[in-house]
Structure formats: structure tokens, C-alpha cells
Amino acid sequence: MNWNRWCCCAVLLLAPLPALARGAHVDLINYPADEAGWERAFALEDAVAREFAAVCADTFCEGDYSNYRVMEFRCAVLAHRGTVQRCVWVLAASELAVQPDTGQVQVDNGHWTCPVEMQPGVPVEAFFASLEAPDGLMAPLPGLDHGLFEVLPDCLQRRGA
Predict the structure, then answer these.
(1) How many helices and strands in the chain, by DSSP H and E?
(2) Which pTM was predicted?
């Protein structure tokens, strides 16, 4: 084999290595390329946090804490198919109280990891389109009979770690 053919074969064999190093799944932020979905994914995370704040106190945020917050909301994408596989909410809450005798501030806090399993094969565009639609954050996700928020009551009923 001559030098040119050997180099061409080596390049063809090594070309997929960056994709393999990246892994089969990527954060929604990094689909279809590194940070390509940054603005849209963080806009979704902000919208989820706002909607959570709006509905939390009147619905599923009852219990040991009075101050609940969405820390992060992220989704995994099967990169070669461009489909959302699952998402996870990370929520935190706290309750503070001042002890009258000592002036100490007592802190009680908790956090929860709440998975949102998706139906296989939900394209990233369909996922975004459904959530960006009016009332999309409360509407059922593509291929499911429930929305993002419906996993939270059961998740939050467990004692926060």
C-alpha cells in the first residue's frame, strides 16, 4: 500500500473517534454540537423555574419546607438519533428559624432529584416545540399522557436528602 492510501485509510479510521469520545448521550445544551442548544435549553430551564415558582405553593410544595427552588433542569439526548431520552429536576428547599433565646439561626434544608422518563424517540425539536407552546409546560409531553410537573408530587413527598 502506498503512502497516500495509508494516510487516507488512517484518516477514515480515526475520523469517528471524537464522536465516540463524546459518548452516545449529550446534554440538551450540547445538541447537535457543543453549546449549540445553549440559549434554548437555558430558556427552557428558566421557564420551568418560573412556572414552578408560580404553581408550587398552591399545589405540591406542602410539607416541611416553605422555600422551594428549581436548582437545575436537564435532559439527556441520544446524539445520533436526536431524541430526548430523559430529564431530571433538581429541587432544593429550606426552612429557617431564629431561636429567641440564643439568636441562632436554625437551618433545615432538603434536596430532591426527580427523574422524568420520556417515551423513546421524541425528537429534540418536537420536545422543544411542545414545551414552548402556550401552556406547554403543563401540557402532556410528546408520546406521554403527563407533563413535566406531574412527576413532582410523588418525588417531593419523599423526605429531602
Answers:
(1) 5, 4
(2) 0.78
Place of cell 399545589: 59
Q: Do residues 81 and 67 make contact, with C-beta atoms less than 8 angstroms apart?
A: no
pLDDT in tens, 33-64: 999 999 999 999 999 999 999 888 777 787 77
Q: What would the grid cell of residue 8 be? A: 487516507
Q: How far apart are CA 67 and CA 56, in angstroms?
A: 10
List alpha helices for 1-151, DSSP H.
3-14, 17-22, 38-56, 124-132
pLDDT tens digit sequence for 91-146:
999 999 999 999 999 999 999 999 998 888 899 999 999 999 888 888 999 888 88
How is residue 24 written as a grid cell?
A: 452516545
- Could you tell me whether strands 25-27 and 105-123 are parallel, antiparallel, or unpaired per DSSP bridges? unpaired
Nearest to 114, CA basis, from 55, 68, 63, 65: 68
